[in-house]
Amino acid sequence: MNRKAVVLLSGGADSATAMACAKRDGYEPYALTIDYGQRHHIELEMASRQAKRQGVVKHLALAVNLRAIGDSALTDDISVPAGRSIEEISGGIPVTYVPARNTIFLSLALGWAESLGTGDIYIGVNSLDYSGYPDCRPEYITAFENMARLATKIGVQNKVAIAIHTPLISLTKAEIFKLGNQLGVDFAITHSFYDPLPSGNACGKCDSCLLRLKGFKEAGLHDPLAYGNSQ
Q1: pTM
Q2: Domains of the chain
């Protein structure tokens, strides 16, 4: 019988690939999507479609209003960087960083996992290709995992081992797309852009779009998303 795993599913390419990895590893996926007050809801739609496509056991959507905290271009009235070079993208923590987002998300995933009787959580964090986010680093994941063992009933009583699975953390974007392609991920129903156009198409200019385009090109794969005014 397959084991249960909670998978944080944002609607992006990385989380969709992490979901496929959980299934590859023999887990029954329970998808958790957080509506955190982000400026655009297309990623929530993509998460719902991706969960159905990958056949999750259950898809739970929770609302946590991080817009009230602000201080991020993804939740506040702050301009999203566009047209930056790779060197500029790699030059520090970007304004698209959401304060403590992964800590909040992982805590919610941990709570649901504990209620399901499992300690296995998958998250599609990636520390390469210039992401710049401090909560995507291996040392952060290790620290959270150690904290989780101290902060939960299942951890203290040693009934269940707690593991934060990060199958993409040391992969380049190109390697992630190759892996997802091998595992049958439908990248046409993934969201990888910070500032979609009114049509819903990807802008093709924000950091996320540029890294996605670079990754697909280096992987030698076709990106199925529509960019700019293309149909």
Answers
A1: 0.92
A2: 3-192 (3.40.50.620)
